[in-house]
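Example record used in the benchmark description.
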Amino acid sequence: MSDPLQLTHKYYQSGEQLIGAIVTQFIYMFDELSFRGQPKTKLIDTFCAILKNYQHVLSLVFAVKEINENPQILPNVSLGLHIYDSHGSARMTYQNTLKLLSASERIVPNFICNKQKNVMAVIGGINNKISLQMATILGIYEVPQVSYSVLAPLKSVKTQLPSLYWTSHNEAYQYKGIVHLLLHFRWIWVGIIVRDDEIGEKFEQTLIPMFVQHGICTAFSEKMPAIFQATETLCSLKTIQAKVTSLFNSKVQVYVVNSRTSTMTYLAWLISFTSEFYDVATISVGKVWIMTAPWAFSFQTTHKALDIQIFDGSLSFAIHSNEVPGFRNFLQSVHSNLEKGDDFLRVFWEKVFNCLFSDSNGDNENSDTCTGQENLESLPGSLFEMSMSARSYSLYNVVHAIAHSLHMAYTSRPKSVARVDRDSLDSPNLQPWQLHPFLRSISFNNSAGDMVSFDENGKLAAAFDLVNWVTFPNQSFSRVKVGKMDPQASPDQEFTVYEEAITWHSTFNQVPPISMCNDNCYPGYRKVKKEGEPFCCYECAPCPEGKISDQKDMDDCFQCPRDQFPNRNRDQCLPKHLNFLSYSEPLGITLTSLALSFSLLAALVLGIFIKNRNTPIIIANNRDLTYTLLISLLLCFLCSLLFIGWPHTVTCCLRQMIFGVTFSVAVSCVLAKTITVVLAFLATKPGSRIRKWVGRRLANFIILGSSLIQVSICVAWLCIAPPFPDFNIDSLPQEIIIECNKGSVTMFYCVLTYLEFLATVTFTVAFLARKLPDSFNEAKFITFSMLVFCSVSLSFVPSYLSTKGKSMVAVEIFSILASSAGLLGCIFFPKCYIIILRSELNRKDQLVRRNL
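Model output (structure tokens):
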């Protein structure tokens, strides 16, 4: 095979056991093969140097140095390192992979000679494309290969290439983390920026359906051309302005960027170029950049013409990393004239410090001479970082994993090793394929305290860190971990974010910023979809009567619990007030005062009648009936007090029963008095047989008979469905009515109907007897009193049914007091007037004279 182009970008450190690596530090362009002559690799020009990637080389060197200095790992075996550059080319990747397997710089695979390199495992490459290119060769020889690509290939790759391992979880976890992040900050109106190729298309096709599923709208999806296509795509100022307008003159506050290097390079170039026509600070105000795992500030995306503060406050996902003890000190000791065997360092040093070594072939007249003592700490973060990056951390862990696997292979017992005997595990005879069972079962804690192990799919167990990028005016920056996406954690702990640790862009008016199609619908309102707009765009409508919304952007309002009611703004449920007629409130005090006053008045009238019981006016109107009527009226006034206060089982049963029975007795007394008057008049006629009916027996029969019927109704009521205390939650929107449930409404209306029947009969008889000649005739007064009673009773039913709560109780009390007062006033006040003020009329001769 012909000699390939001898590029000097490699690193070699001898050792009894070698770890190979393919990194991507310098990208070159090569000519096309014509196949008209002997194939040769001809270099056209250097395209770019990914300067920050030099830390990958140093992390490998540091890990090997740490292992060789550690007596606990491979104590009798020295570990070596052989690194080549892929140069971002499939041709060079295949070529340098074969070099790792060859005895010398000439590619002579499948031959074993005295100087054969003992490469036990290979690390690489930086992305899936390079990794798979390497795996097609390494898989043939079953050499363990660990890819440090940020995102792992499909699961089927492990089946096809069982010798391939990688350091990352599936990309789906990163998508899930982006969704969690957007939902945490309620960013539901976002823009997507991807590369214009199959990778960007896959990113869109995967992420957008997840957004829709979780209620996130995509305002736009902008495709960025690869850097090679930039000149062709943006060939005019008008095209540039149109693209910038679509990106930055939008209401979108949050951009999700599939941050491949080419995407970010072009985006940075676009912003830089546009700054000549737009104020960069203006177009970036209020923007949050969410970057995917490959993102890191580098010289390619933050050249000198671009102010990196545009990306201040950006958030990105990165493979979990930790600070490795001693790494910073190791970097501080790196100098260009001390590193032998490192062909990467010289070119890196000249580029980052903008200098040339004295023996350099460079022709840059403006460059200073490199002293070799320049300090890496003086470099901005876009060129080189002193803290270990996520990829470097993965490489560090991979070297230690391989070393631990080798250590296990040397120290394991023969019975634990398949297909080999103990002698074959000696250093000269150990083969790469024998390392697989140890590599699959490896598990240890590294020097940073993190667990390192490969799962059943050959992936190095790792989580994603959420990183906040804080930039400074001098083009430096810092990475701050503000969260984590850990697929191995429980669902509620899978995604965590420390909001207080995030530094936002200084131009935001509020933090965290808002990214929505329209303003929030505040509590008390609900979302109403706009016709023809995405589901994230909506209007706000007030909650209907009786419903509330207590959070922002609720799809619908909801009813309060039964014991609560909506406040005026309909954004909160308040406890319902207890509604019952209390003795302490003004209405309760008033009705109690009236009831006691009328009771005292009835007692006073009873006392007057008892004191003047032998006077003609009292004798003529049947003293026993008068006393019974006054006592029943007294009880009617007092029974109204049972309706006031907190309802209890006893009071609920007594209030309606006592009310019904006492009123029945009172009306029965009035009926008996009326019938007695009529019979007394008829009995005065000569030869009348009615005389025998006049007397106490008839009056007592009427009272007892009429009252017993009501008592029977009440007893039946108590037996069938007695009243009981109840909490009525539904009748009043803002109150809980504490009432006496009637138990049986039918029995309640039976009591009222019977009272109305007695009152009607009494009124009819009294009305017919109203003109009977008698000095102390009560028929007129009874007629008027029963007219009052019936009027109150007829107006009570509609008033009672149209009120609720304490008002209903007050109506019933008022009806009781009004009816009782009507009977007391109309029947007894005329007599009291004669007894007290016109005593001269209270004589028997007046009675006889009137009768004549």
